[in-house]
Every structure is written in C-alpha cells, then in structure tokens.
Amino acid sequence: MNHKPVEGFSKLTKQGKIDWLVSEYLEGNQEYQNILNQYWNENADLQKLHDEFSENTISNFYMPYGIAPNFLINGKLFALPMAVEESSVVAAASKAAKFWIDKGGFKTTIINTEKLGHTHFIIDVESHKLQHFFNFNLKKKLFEATEAITANMRNRGGGILDIKLVDKTAEMPNYYQLKASFDTVDSMGANFINSCLEQFGKTLKQEVAVSEDFTQEEKNSLQIVMNILSNFTPDCIVRAEVSCKIEDLKDDSGISNEEFARKFKQAVTIAEIEPFRATTHNKGIMNGVDAVVIATGNDFRATEACAHAYASKDGKYSSLTHCTIDNGIFRFWIDLPISVGVVGGLTNLHPLVKFSLALLGKPSAQELMSILAVSGLAQNFGALRSLVTTGIQKGHMKMHLLNILNQMGATEEEKQHFVTYFKDKTVSHHEVINEFNRLRAQ
Fold it and tell me: Which pathway is this protein assigned to (predicted)?
C-alpha cells in the first residue's frame, strides 16, 4: 500500500483530521489547509451546524445559488431558488418561464401522494397458507403494533394507507414481501416509513412464532431479510403542463410557429422511442428538478433514482415529458414521480434551505412537488427549444464562456472584450483560445 490505514479517524478533531490528510496524502503542503479554511464560515456556530450535518466534515463545498424568476404556476408568480453549478441551467429555466408567462403559465395536478416500503422476508411455506395467515391475523396485528409510531402522523392526516402480502416466489425461492403504502403529509417520511417497517419485521416474527398455522419447521425457516422504504414512488406523482395555440408560439429564431411546433414534437417523440436520446433528455429535466431539490434541502439522489426508474416502467427507457399538437393547440407536459418534504431533515436547520422555502411562500409538500415538476418541464422546454432552432451550443457555451476565461486567467477587461466578441457568434473552446492568444500577443 502507498499509504498507511488510519485508526479512529472519526474520533479525531476536525483539525486532527486535516493534519493527518495533509501529512499522509498531500505531502505536508499547507496550501491545502488554506483552501479548506477559505470555505469555513466565519460564524463559528453556523460552521458547527454545517459540520454536524454529516460525518468526518473538514470544510464546506460551495455551489452557486441562483434565482430563476417569472414562474407563473397555477396563477401564482414564483422566483425559484436553484443550487446548480452547470452553466445555462438557471438561464434556460428563466427564459422558459418568461416564454410562458403571457400564455397562461404552468398548470399542475397532484395525481397521487402514496409512498412505499417493504419488509422482505423468506419463509418455506405454501403460499395459500401464508396468505390466509396474513388476511385473518397478521394484517390487523401490524396496524396495532405500529399505532404508537403512527400516532403523530395520523394526527396530521397521514399514516399507513394499506399493507399487502406479495408473493415473489416465482422470482426467488420462498421470497415474500409485506408491501405497505404510506401518506407522510408534509415530510419526506423516510425515517417514519423505516420505523414502521422495522416494527413490521418484529411483529411478523412474533406472530409466526406463536401461530398454530405453521409447523415448527416452517417457523424455523422464517428469515427477515430487511425492512426498508422504496425510493421508487410511482404513485406519488405530479403533472405539470403548458399549452397554447400554435399561432401564439412566437419564437425569435426565425422559423414559423408551425415549424417550431412540428420540430419540437418530433424531438419529444424521438426521446420517447430512443433510449440514447431519452437519457440525455431526462438528464436535462433533472437539471431543473435537482437544482430546486438541493436548494430546498431534499434528497436529489432519491429524486434521480425514482425518475429514471419511472422512465423505464414500461420495459424500455423513455422520455418523462410528452407533447401533442391537436386542433391547433400545442401541449407539453411531464408526469413526475417525486417524494419530497418541507419539514424535518435539513428544512428546519440549513439557513439557505429556510430561505428557499420562505422565498417559495413556505409551500406544502404537494406544492413543492408542483414547483419541482414545473422546474423540470421548463428546463426541458428551454433545451428542446434551443435544439430544434439555434442548436444547444450557442446558448450553453455563451454561459460557459466565463468558466473558460477564468481557467485561462483572463482579466476583467479581457472578459468584457470576449462578451462583446461573441455577441453575435457561437462560442467554442477553440475560438476562445485563438482569440485569447491573439489578444495577449498585441
């Protein structure tokens, strides 16, 4: 090994962790210590709060926090907070919001809010015998055993909606599930769901042990494998859409409204039938969704996993958005499965998360679902609008220009020169380098 393993790293102080890393991995170069220090918050209490969000924390990792204004959603105007480092995401969302603001804006519908979790278990018993035991004994006991856990959630209007026994023995020998659906109201609900499921596992074990329905051999075969929520929530879903007459689809690219609508619909259809395109298409959607998810302190990994699983639900990976042109009406929409919360987790702790939620009018979880779906739809509209007209690079690379110039050490005067130089040109990395070298050679 090129480095020594470390014992008790988590027990070291923050400075102790840094000293060890710099010594062991960074050749003692104190410049790296300075980099970490630059990103500490000067407010010691606020820094301590950030340190305690995760484990083995040594600094903060900053992301740009931007605002996309002019989102008209269900008749209300919003400015969306977006935490994202990719150039042109905020600009594209803002441009799409502005495009639709005088056409009725975005409309949303909450289709369902059910979340799911499973107790996965193995038992060597005939399926009909287990089903009888579940129907006439276990199901009632599972609800009773979790009454204390669900009390507060039930008082807020949520709780366990249903519990089913699922036979998976055709796919794996002796494998069954207790599949439960939940309503977690304004919380994302992961801890609540997992607590309920762990109690399910205990109750299942207890009830099987005392039941007269099973032989001792069958009882001994029971194994509780795991109790865990699912981040795939196909029944926790929101629809966001825009529509207008084709004659109102004014675009400044020079093509007619009819051609724009036709090419736009073709682009969506390609993403519906071609997985290679759908992957990039949906990634762009999640650019918009994840930026607001992060800004509001929610779990973007969960939203990503759920969205991509949903895109594959029919056996082939496909577009999350859809488009129709009927009777002169252009309609573009997304059905987005997403599970988020506005209470619990970072929502009550992280100052910028609290700012984001206040900026959005302290939304309910369902309202936040709607905002997230709109952000994804707007991002996709902006990307497709560019793709079928001027091409994606013109806008994207113009936003990326400052990143290139910063890497090259350009002065503020030189940056202004490049903004003017590329005002009517498509930015390319090659052209930036050529012009930069020409400018410096003068």
Answer: Metabolic intermediate metabolism; (R)-mevalonate degradation; (S)-3-hydroxy-3-methylglutaryl-CoA from (R)-mevalonate: step 1/1
